[in-house]
Amino acid sequence: MLKKIIFKKIDIPKLLLQNWQEIVNIMAHIIGVPAGLIMRIVDDDIEVFVSSKTENNPYSVGGKEHLIASGLYCETVIKTKKKLLVPNALLDNEWKDNPDTKINMISYLGFPLLYPDKTPFGTICVLDNKKNSYSKIYEGLILKFSEVIQTHLNLEVKSYKLEMQNKKLRVFQQKLEKSENRFRELFNNMGSGVAIYEPVDDGNDFVFKDINDSGCRLTNINKKQILDKRVTEVFPEVKAFELFPVLQEVYKTGKPKKHPVRFYQDKKLSRWFKNYVYRLSNDQIVAIYEDVTSNKKFEFDLLESKKNMEKISRKLHKNLIGTVTALANTVEYRDRYTIGHSRNVSDLACAIAQHMGLQSENIEALKMAGFLHDIGKIAIPLETLVKPNPLTKEEFNVIKTHPLIGYQLVQPVEFPLPVAQMILEHHERLNGTGYPCGKTDNELLFESKILAVADVVEAMSLDRPYRKALGIKKALKEITKHKGVLFDSEIVYTCVRLFKKKGFKFKPPPKEPEFTLGTIEGYFE
């Protein structure tokens, strides 16, 4: 940051400018060209800083051009920080349209001028109105002049830094002279209580050496009456307050320490305080007392208010989930073939998630999603749901809308995790052939992939209006056949292992839908 300030604010002294003027005059005269220039970067522009006093020189001091993407010779010099030689721009496709050719400056030789940290200052260059290849001698001459100017810049930067440092020292000295008065003023007028103790008996006790007005007011003591008295005399419960060992520790270690909020009580004083303790260079101990009694009262009131709000929030959630659950029950009441389906999907999804090491909150979210994943079927015509024959294409397209409808029903409920998205995605497949959105592997929630496997396995195990149950073996064979394509391989492996190795079984379907608010309300506890 200092460098940026220096490079923006540095001024070139008048005497140095005269030297630079002589340099460009000599340079243009020796090489025999109309223009010798020193260019300087000013924000996003390039400015003619010094211009040779030569015949037919079209460049005036103060003339500016936008630097970025300007096509100027000097833009390339500044970007590359290297020499640029253009003998004849009119014969060079790269340079024939650059702005300098409009004033007939068709040849160019320039070098970068850099600050000490290699940040560009600008360029030093010569331009001619005719073809000019510039000899190595001329190149060497301009290079030497550039080194001289960069030496000047280096000295000016150092001078500016020195001036800034001297200014800081003067300011610091003034502050130092006022610091004692400021400290005393602060000490006497600050809102927090401040006490200064001197250790006695090798730090086994401490005596008062000073205390400010706020300290006297907060602790109900008289300054004249307590100076040079031991802290245990003035505050008899200081050890029970647990501040005394903090004073001893800070005295021994020299490390500042914060004493957390504690309640102090004796016959004269009863308040909440927090303290900051540190050691001075003369081994005296400073303790800052902050009275937080009003804050503690506010905290207690806020905590009570928060508890009341949580009760209200839980009640609202229960009412809302009760409504959603009632809708889910309605779906199963409408279709006797799927009674118990949602509960079984939920149980299997949670078992898979648990064996795969998902966090408890993710498992709870899956539990909810399993219960509610078919809630969108409430909008499907009953004759389509219970049709005993295979569905037509049009009927199946209607069935395929139930994940989106379910998402729209559940999305307004503020679950801790995206339950509504799991419902939306439970018929999606890894290869994008699922519905309703045709999402692929990386677009799907991991929980949605678990729910998809659980839904397929459970569905194949149930009777349908148009077929009898296919059984667990065929269901497991089906998901295994399509693992890595339709279903996540690790999830399939875990599901198969649950049935074959861990003895997982679906509960038999009840006569009536049986999951209620009580089975899911714990999600919000």
SSE layout and pairing:
Elements: H1 2-9, H2 14-31, E1 35-42, E2 45-51, E3 64-66, H3 73-80, E4 84-86, E5 107-114, E6 120-128, H4 136-189, E7 193-200, E8 205-211, H5 213-219, H6 223-226, H7 231-234, H8 244-253, E9 257-265, E10 270-279, E11 285-291, H9 293-334, H10 341-355, H11 360-372, H12 382-385, H13 393-399, H14 402-410, H15 419-425, H16 446-461, H17 472-481, H18 489-500, H19 517-520
Helix pairs in contact: 2-4, 10-11, 10-16, 10-18, 11-15, 11-16, 14-15, 15-16, 16-17
- Uncertain stretches: 1-6, 515-525
Name the overall outline. flat
The CATH class name of the largest domain reads Mainly Alpha
From the alpha carbons, calculate the radius of gyration and give it in angstroms.
Answer: 42 Å
Query: If helices are DSSP runs of H or I spanning 4 or more residues, what is the number of helices?
Result: 19
Average pLDDT, rounded to a whole number, is 85
- The CATH architecture of the largest domain is Orthogonal Bundle
Order of helices and strands: HHEEEHEEEHEEHHHHEEEHHHHHHHHHHH
Q: What is the CATH T-level topology of the largest domain? A: Hypothetical protein af1432
Beta-strand content: 15-25%
**Biggest sheet statistics:** 6 strands, antiparallel
Structural class: alpha+beta
Fourth-tier CATH superfamily name of the largest domain? Hypothetical protein af1432
Number of domains: 3
Count of beta strands: 11
Strand order of the largest sheet: 3-2-1-6-5-4
Helix content: 40-55%
- CA-CA gap between termini: 52 Å
